[in-house]
Amino acid sequence: MWSQDPFYHIGTVTKRARLIRIVNTLTAQTQYMTVCNEDSIYDIQQKYKQRYNHHAGSYEWRKFSNGGKSCSILNLNGTLDENGLTDDEDSNVELPPPSIWLYYTDDITIA
């Protein structure tokens, strides 16, 4: 059947959609995005770039951990879970979505 032919397959269904918060520290704007659990940070960056800020490549993508005491740059090839931005969907308490913080690097070569 035609539906079994890999030529006609355009993608896979995500295991789980995730809500994330992206904070641009330069403009103090916050955007909420729903992304696939399997998306890498690079994929999320490209979606953010298309929708909100085409200079997203000129920013460092960071996360805070240990209660906001330490800040680290995200691995663009890793997923949210691989970068430590976990989401406890089985929790009884509703938690805020994981946050990604964008810091402008003044790198005009990346646009």
Automatic annotation (TrEMBL):
<dbReference type="GO" id="GO:0046872">
    <property type="term" value="F:metal ion binding"/>
</dbReference>
<keyword id="KW-0479">Metal-binding</keyword>
<protein>
    <submittedName>
        <fullName>Uncharacterized protein, isoform B</fullName>
    </submittedName>
</protein>
<keyword id="KW-0349">Heme</keyword>
<dbReference type="InterPro" id="IPR052320">
    <property type="entry name" value="Cytochrome_b5_domain"/>
</dbReference>
<comment type="similarity">
    <text>Belongs to the cytochrome b5 family.</text>
</comment>
<keyword id="KW-0408">Iron</keyword>
